[in-house]
Amino acid sequence: ESGVQVPPPPLIRWDSWVWSANPMLDPPRKSETKMQTLTQEIASSVCREGVFMGVSRVLVGCSGGCDSTALLDILVRLAPQFEVNIAVAHLHHGWRGAEADADLDCARQLAENYGVPFFASRVDLSAARGSREEVARSARLDFFESIVADWNADVVALGHTADDQLETVLLNLVRGTGRRGLGGMRPRSEVGDLILVRPLLGCRRHELREYALSRSLEWNEDSSNEDVSLSRNRLRLRLLNELEQVHPSAVKNVSRAAELLREEEEWLDLIAADAFGEVVDVNGHLDGVLLCKTVLGSMPRPLQRRVVRNAIASVRGDCRGISYEHVEWVIDIDHSEKISAHDLPGVRVKREGDHIRLLPLDGRRLAKS
After folding, report:
1. pTM for the full model?
2. Are 350 and 341 in contact (CB under 8 A)?
3. Which domains does the chain have, with CATH numbers?
4. Lesser CB count within 10 Å: N end or C end of the chain?
5. CB neighbour list of residue 215: distance below 8 Å, 6 or more residues apart
């Protein structure tokens, strides 16, 4: 299924805002002042984070649930301010039967109400291997990539909230992570060829529900959100409420801490990039990445880890599946007297005299520098 461009309804001005003649975008009543404030806060955050910098087309991932429905409504209202065009994308995962069909219909109806293009697809993930959450995420990213190419979108907007951020940070913490993982999701990030934006990271889930109710929006509740066999659901249903009993601002506080860690991480990335330039031997770049062990060994251990991760990313494009132990093995390669080469996920590491060479595996090409 694919969307057909529908001309948007005419725009009219009401006070200092730009509103659509669409009945779903009527001028606000006094009772909506709080929700206007929320929208303005989101607009300010979008400006501050540069979420829509250089963007003219925004593809909104809409599940039909409350968060993504509120996101779509907010972005349609803010579209004139940021001079962007909106489209809606929905992936039917082939799970949950009639409930998933209803989600698809809900997303399609929302797009029709707003007069924006709608794109949808169905997949059957019943035979897919791996965790259900990861399989679904991978399928959505593949779907978004195809629609971004078809519609020439600049970014994909997702409805992740401050509550989702807390869940992500805690999951990363218990699974094992460093500063980058504790920084949680970014307001704007790149995944392969996709640019993902998350305008709602500063909003609580209950705030969006209040917003949706005040706007008389309709959405579907996903019954799988109550499935405690999924790790994120177990965390949300069993732990988050307890955290808020300990401190009522737990979600906001963790979100703020993650933001600070992200900012520091960006600064440390700049330092690591300079250090990587000192360690890499440019003469060996065409055949993998060649690192000088002497220069690498002269650096503080935390900086060595970052340089090694940069080297791995330059070979295979990212560091997914690369663990702390993998990085430590590369740094301590001279301690493995009997092993001169070792395969990590997507990359082969070889000891060559005074150098460490990293080569792409599995038919991968050396990532562009």
Report:
1. 0.77
2. yes
3. 11-260 (3.40.50.620), 280-360 (1.20.59.20)
4. C
5. 24, 32, 35, 70, 73
